[in-house]
Amino acid sequence: MPDKSTSSDAPAPTAAETPQAPSAARKIYPIVKYGDAILEKPGAPVKKFDAELEQLAEDMFASMYAAQGVGLAAPQIGLSLRLAVVDVTGGKNPEAKIVLANPEIVHAEGEVREEEGCLSIPGFRGYVLRPQFVTIKAQNAKGEAFEIRGENLLARAFCHEIDHLNGILFLQHLSMLKRDLIKRKIKKLRKQGEW
Ligand SMILES: [Zn+2]
């Protein structure tokens, strides 16, 4: 989700849990941009939890750090799958890495209106109302179920990524006026071959 424009250094992850695939060999996926239909279609549930999925999740972290994001959902790399990764520290703390397979919000509380962006809609931001606290349940890359509570930016990242898995972009949370303005600008960029 939110692109982390404030961070100047986004170090590549050094914690390689899978010995056969060191971080140096990580695949960096290009990010799918707004306009691609895959972004507006719900992803299929993750059913197969194997080494391939763990590798995919690690590659998603690497791709997210490379793009200086704090969250990345599988549809954003062209995979229609209910899988997302989140790290609001931008790679600074390996323990902050969260893999979300089949995540669902179980509880939401409070409201915060903050500016938000999306790696798939680069250069555009908008104020989005999100819960201040959310509790979600999900599975990790091994298929183990867990619950996690997030506050502020983390809660926002969870909501933004879960939206992606449902084919929803932050644009849909903006006023029609603001949304149309952004859409028009993107259309223009596309015409100029800059999107
Ligand atoms: Zn996004």
Which labels suit this protein?
alpha+beta, binds zinc ion
Helix content: 10-25%
The N- and C-terminal alpha carbons lie at a distance of 18 Å
| String of helices and strands | HEEEEEEEHH
Note the main sheet. Answer: 5 strands, antiparallel
- Neighbour order of strands in the largest sheet: 1-2-3-6-7
Let me know the number of strands. 7
Residue runs with pLDDT of under 50 for 5 or more positions: 4-21
- Which small-molecule ligands are present, each listed once? zinc ion
Return the structural class: alpha+beta
Dominant shape? globular
Rg for CA atoms: 16 Å
Number of helices: 3
User: Beta-strand level of the residues, as a percent range?
Assistant: 15-25%
Overall pLDDT metric = 91
Write up this protein.
It is globular and about 45 Å long. Strand 6 and strand 7 (145-151) form a beta hairpin. It contains three helices and seven strands, in the order H-E-E-E-E-E-E-E-H-H. It is 23% helix and 23% strand. It has helices at residues 51-66, 153-165, 176-191, and strands at 71-73, 83-86, 98-109, 112-117, 125-130, 133-139, 145-151. The longest helix has 16 residues, at 51-66. A five-stranded antiparallel sheet has the order 1-2-3-6-7. The protein has a two-stranded antiparallel ribbon with strand order 4-5. With 195 residues, the protein is α+β, with helices and mostly antiparallel strands. Residues 4-21 have low confidence and may be disordered. Bound molecules: zinc ion. Residues 1, 118-120, 160, 164 line the site of zinc ion (ZN).
